[in-house]
Amino acid sequence: MSRILVTGGAGFIGSHVAEALIEASHTVAVLDNLSSGKRENVPEAARFYHVDITDKEGLEAFFAEFKPEIVNHHAAQISVNRSVREPCFDAEQNILGTINLLEASARHGIKRFIFASTGGALYGDAPSIPSNEDTPVIPLAPYGIAKASAEHYVRFFSAERIEPVILRYANVYGPRQDPYGEAGVVGIFSLKALSGEGCVIYGTGYQTRDFVYVKDVARANLAAVDGKPGTYNIGTGIETSINKLFSEFKRLEGSLKVSHDAARAGEVLRSVLDVSRAGNDLCWQPQVNLSDGIRQTYAWFKERIG
Ligand SMILES: NC(=O)c1ccc[n+]([C@@H]2O[C@H](COP(=O)([O-])OP(=O)(O)OC[C@H]3O[C@@H](n4cnc5c(N)ncnc54)[C@H](O)[C@@H]3O)[C@@H](O)[C@H]2O)c1
Fold it and tell me: How confident is the model at residue 126 (pLDDT cuts 50, 70, 90)?
């Protein structure tokens, strides 16, 4: 069993990752600046450090005290819109923050660095659908540019004998996701369904995404602890339209209404990941189908907000 640092472990995905690692008997520390994460998301069995990844001294003190063997890096600025408005801020958090962690990892002899990257924002309007890991990286916004750059740094630090595992997520959904943000359609639809307001679909609704349940993503992170180093897509391989997603919510709330608005400029029309490499090399496969995942997510929101 390993001592594992989960950065961003007070956030949506990181908190599920921390939980899965603890369940598998690893010793976990969560490091988070609570900018979007919440203290109550951190599992009780994890040690919590209120530290910012841009604070080099804070990181150094953390590494000296906790002595992690593996770093699992989920802390990030996650808003694509903000990255367009404030590209310097995005790069400070997502590129320089990652380099700070890699430097500290090298100084402290970390064995492995697991990095939460993105499929959709890297492949953009991909020429090949489903997109595998060899699809050209053509990010459409600074968020994707920074993630692509951070991936290169993670691989570069393998020269320091740090094994790189890069997980490129599809659209992750599930309990604890932020329903108030600009993205994350499952959270937004959940909130609209609960308030009785009705959902808005931009454009035809035939645009597609690959929706992967957060507990499946957490299991992929567990597989990444001792699986083969490399770069892996983590999704379902199933292309789901926004109309189909809406119909899943409609099954749960029969009276739910929908209205259409103009398509959003620059929106990618089709996005789905080929996840066969993770299947072969990490022995990982998604297990939760969309209907079950939506039901569990909606039940979670209902309990808290409804
Ligand atoms: N949600 C998705 O569908 C998705 C898709 C692809 C990739 N990702 C990546 O997964 C990771 C987690 O995303 P999420 O959806 O859980 O977002 P989130 O906002 O819930 O989690 C991010 C966490 O990082 C923390 N954080 C932010 N800046 C920090 C800093 N400077 N120092 C320390 N902590 C900081 C936040 O407080 C938060 O707890 C991110 O790296 C994101 O880019 C998410």
Answer: confident
